[in-house]
Design the sequence.
């Protein structure tokens, strides 16, 4: 199925087919409608996104592919509430992001979303574990626990022996893994990763991918950008972008689906069951972690 | 995020950006210390003059000859302008004529050489009456002051001020010793207590004679009844202007002058002497204050600059912190804490430096420095305010940007 236009009928039908095709009729957690993003630099304008319509359900694992400059990162930033569309609407768990107060957005970024930046964006003055613990600072987690969880997250990405290194003392791939660890440390329900394996060798790539698989298996929604078909293959759904528009979408029906059925609310039995499939040291088994479902607090 | 956590992050940022922190603290510090010291110097000079004049005596009026009261430039023209005389002083001393004048002391002085044994010393020799002691608010250290008996009998007695006694007699007791004043032998009957540190040095370097003895046996000359000053003491500070009026009217009548503007004498109150003398020092204070304000401004602009640049450099950091879930209020708080810590450090260090300088400098430049509380507080507020304002304002603006815009900023 291909979504090329941005007309309302098409997006409606897309939404309809989505909910119909989704197992257990999960509600879309992400709804983009006619999202455009125009950058104005001096005299000329760049249309980075030209009316994107996209539905993503809870627990989906999506790979976004497309040539360089096609607007993947721009889309990802909007999904992560780091940027706002020029026009069009973005509904996150049913809430219009444009209408949300800044405080709520901050909380969503902090507790619900884990973002891996293409440029890593680590603070150069802080050591690896201090970078990783940053989101926990804003979540109000205690010091000892922050450190323990940061180190645990670094261990997961294979950096247990680089805990006290600053970013400039790390290789590009290691910095990328610190960025991944930082996105995972809050145990978010939605993980947005902009080329998280771009700088990694195949072994490290496999580590990060199996980490993402594990998270997906425990019910997290994952969107990742990649140029590598092997990486995209791990995802249940591939969305191709070209010139700021979705060109091809394998659709939600093609889910890898290991986590199918995890629609449960926070703390419910099935949710716990899904998580317990994880390893004992997994992110998911934390008591204070964010609930999987999207309850945007007002 | 708790305030304690914010404080920790702020302190860490201060430590991390060491050179920026040092420069900011220095800018604030120098501004504050400069204001404390320069304004303190001006105030010190002003207070010094005021204390000197106050030490002349309380509720004091000084009558001097001359017609400097002329406001329209008319001087003289009334024939024989009589100078002040002992008779003027006697008239003013009358309770019927001038009820609000408590004491009157006519005085003449010359700079003369005094000899005691082998030592000699040139000093101001003052011929006056017993009231001089109370009018000029002085005290006897040992012996006695001149008496009205001495004045009527032209007694050959002298009272020495502290420095004069020290110079002529060293540590020895001068009472009863003989001093030759311009060749005339006098007996030392008393010494004066030192006037105090705030007074001018020559208050303690003089020799007091009975006015009759001075006029007839020491100074000589044609106009033996004329005097150089008449010191008047009003009965209280409330009657000062009444005493002034009484003295003015009495002297105008005695000198047969009908228009007050033609007066051949001037009556200056302590207040008028004070304002004349301090106006110069006030100009100095204003000048120094201006210099201080400029240094504060320059320091402030420096601080502003550093803060603006450092916050601009850190807009990416702000963007990242926002992206990781920091609400704008927490970002503002973080920069507020940072800027406050720097401002506080600069403010405290600047105040400390200013106070230490104010304590030490007088020993090096023999200039009194009086701390001005309003200037100090004002300087602290301005310097710290600039530091905090320009540390927080750009940060809070950046905190309103979309995280990605802040992250992308150069
Ligand atoms: N801040 C900006 N100002 C102006 N133009 C921008 C800005 N950010 C992105 N663009 C433009 O928008 C388009 C899409 O950029 P985007 O970063 O989304 O591409 P991308 O698909 O992530 O590419 P890559 O695979 O190379 O990362 C590009 O043409 C880019 O030049
Ligand atoms: Mg990109």
Sequence:
């Amino acid at each position: 199925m291909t979504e090329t236009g941005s007309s309302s009928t098409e997006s409606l039908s897309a939404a309809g087919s989505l909910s119909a095709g989704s197992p257990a009729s999960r509600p879309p957690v992400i709804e983009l409608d006619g999202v455009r993003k125009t950058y104005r630099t001096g005299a000329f304008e760049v249309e980075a996104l030209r009316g994107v319509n996209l539905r993503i359900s809870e627990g989906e694992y999506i790979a976004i592919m497309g040539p360089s400059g096609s607007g993947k990162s721009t889309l990802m930033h909007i999904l992560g509430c780091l940027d706002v569309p020029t026009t069009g609407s973005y509904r996150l768990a049913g809430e219009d992001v444009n209408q949300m107060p800044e405080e709520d957005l901050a909380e969503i970024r902090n507790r619900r979303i884990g973002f891996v930046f293409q440029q890593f964006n680590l603070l150069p003055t802080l050591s690896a574990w201090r970078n990783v613990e940053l989101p926990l600072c804003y979540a109000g987690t205690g010091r000892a626990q922050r450190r323990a969880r940061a180190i645990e997250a670094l261990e997961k990405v294979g950096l247990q022996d680089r805990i006290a290194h600053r970013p400039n003392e790390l290789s590009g791939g290691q910095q990328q893994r610190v960025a991944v660890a930082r996105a995972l440390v809050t145990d978010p329900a939605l993980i947005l990763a902009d080329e998280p394996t771009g700088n990694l060798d195949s072994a490290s790539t496999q580590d990060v991918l199996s980490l993402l698989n594990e998270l997906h298996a425990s019910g997290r929604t994952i969107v990742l950008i990649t140029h590598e078909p092997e990486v995209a293959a791990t995802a249940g759904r591939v969305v191709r972008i070209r010139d700021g528009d979705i060109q091809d979408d394998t659709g939600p029906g093609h889910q890898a689906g290991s986590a199918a059925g995890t629609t449960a609310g926070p703390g419910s039995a099935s949710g716990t069951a899904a998580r317990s499939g994880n390893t004992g040291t997994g992110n998911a088994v934390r008591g204070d972690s964010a609930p999987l479902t999207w309850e945007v607090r007002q | 995020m708790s305030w304690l956590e914010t404080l920790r992050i702020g302190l860490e940022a201060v430590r991390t950006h060491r050179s920026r922190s040092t420069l900011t603290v220095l800018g604030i510090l120098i501004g504050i210390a400069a204001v404390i010291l320069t304004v303190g110097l001006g105030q010190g000079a002003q207070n010094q003059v005021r204390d000197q004049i106050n030490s002349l005596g309380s509720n004091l009026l000084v009558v001097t000859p001359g017609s400097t009261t002329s406001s329209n430039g008319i001087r003289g023209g009334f024939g024989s302008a009589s100078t002040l005389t002992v008779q003027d002083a006697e008239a003013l001393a009358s309770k019927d004529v001038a009820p609000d004048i408590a004491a009157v002391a006519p005085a003449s002085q010359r700079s003369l050489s005094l000899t005691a044994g082998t030592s000699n010393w040139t000093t101001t020799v003052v011929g006056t009456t017993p009231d001089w002691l109370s009018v000029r608010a002085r005290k006897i250290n040992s012996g006695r002051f001149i008496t009205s008996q001495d004045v009527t009998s032209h007694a050959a007695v002298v009272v020495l001020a502290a420095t004069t006694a020290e110079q002529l007699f060293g540590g020895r007791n001068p009472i009863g010793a003989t001093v030759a004043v311009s060749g005339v032998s006098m007996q030392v009957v008393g010494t004066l207590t030192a006037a105090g540190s705030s007074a001018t040095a020559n208050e303690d370097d003089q020799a007091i004679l009975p006015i009759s003895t001075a006029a007839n046996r020491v100074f000589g000359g044609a106009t033996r009844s004329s005097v150089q000053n008449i010191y008047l003491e009003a009965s209280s500070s409330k009657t000062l202007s009444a005493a002034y009026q009484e003295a003015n009217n009495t002297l105008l009548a005695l000198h047969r002058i009908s228009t007050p503007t033609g007066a051949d004498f001037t009556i200056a109150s302590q207040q008028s002497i004070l304002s004349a003398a301090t106006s110069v020092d006030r100009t100095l204070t204003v000048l120094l204050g201006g210099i201080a304000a400029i240094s504060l401004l320059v320091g402030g602009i420096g601080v502003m600059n550093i803060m603006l640049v450092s916050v601009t450099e850190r807009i990416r950091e702000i963007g990242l912190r926002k992206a990781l879930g920091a609400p704008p209020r927490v970002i503002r708080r973080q920069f507020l804490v940072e800027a406050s810590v720097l401002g506080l450090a600069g403010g405290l260090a600047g105040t400390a430096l200013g106070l230490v300088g104010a304590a030490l400098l007088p020993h090096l430049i023999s200039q009194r420095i009086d701390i001005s509380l309003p200037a100090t507080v004002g300087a602290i507020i301005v310097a710290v305010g600039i530091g905090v304002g320009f540390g927080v304002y750009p940060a809070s603006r950046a905190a309103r940007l979309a995280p990605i815009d802040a992250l992308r900023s150069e």
